[in-house]
Amino acid sequence: MTTLQRRGPAHSALARDIGVAIVTGRIPTGSTLPGEVDIAEQRGLSRSVVREALRMLSAKGLVVSKPKAGTRVRERHEWNLLDPELLAWMFEGEPPAGFVQSLFQLRLIVEPAAAELAAVKRDTRQLSRMGAALEAMADHGLHTEQGRAADQLFHNIILEATGNELLVSLSGSIGAAVHWTTLYKHRSTKLPRDSMPEHRQLFAAIADSDAAAARAATIVLVDQAREDTERALAR
């Protein structure tokens, strides 16, 4: 392990470095990490920073620490794959095609139903915020950080508009999936397909309180994103 480059709080930066190495396979599942003292010396950090970083990784299901046995990398099925930070780390490298497929299957299960519900339950303020996010996407473009943030907000407001607290609790995960798949396809493709027309169709359906049209528009939008991401992975 090399000396840590400071990016925000030291424990968060260390957790990210180790986390990325785990989810991209550079540190394999089942392996044992160096001890706290060794990591601290290698990185030029205090043991308390290392300990806090390992706690963060443990909370995400990536590692488990036991007295005398050390810190072991857990098997993939034990990871909290919907953790927004873990999703971000997955896209630091080349995410496995199977993982991307699973991610879009999840979106196709959740988002069309959420859009259908939002179309009949949204209020005027939520609709106004969706419209503002949509215009910010158009103004900045999805190739920019501001545009991707607006895209993530647009989808999060749809979940919020369902009024279902369990769906709202998925906002962090769904929002992260939208953000990182969009970033990945723009990073990997010079001229990705423009998804603004489909976003506008979805917004119009919700504005018209047309639940069936909102569901259909969401399926088209998510399917298009899946195709674009898979095409980027194949390059």
From TrEMBL:
Coiled-coil ranges from the UniProt annotation: none
Key words of the record: DNA-binding, Transcription, Transcription regulation
Stored PANTHER family: GNTR FAMILY REGULATORY PROTEIN, TRANSCRIPTIONAL REGULATOR, GNTR FAMILY
Listed GO MF terms: DNA binding; DNA-binding transcription factor activity
Lineage: Bacteria, Pseudomonadati, Pseudomonadota, Alphaproteobacteria, Sphingomonadales
Protein name: FadR family transcriptional regulator
PROSITE patterns: HTH_GNTR
InterPro entries: GntR_C, TF_FadR/GntR_C, Tscrpt_reg_HTH_GntR, WH-like_DNA-bd_sf, WH_DNA-bd_sf
UniProt organism field: Sphingomonas sanguinis
Residue ranges of domain HTH gntR-type in the record: 8-76
Family matches, as SMART domains: FCD, HTH_GNTR
One Pfam entry name: GntR
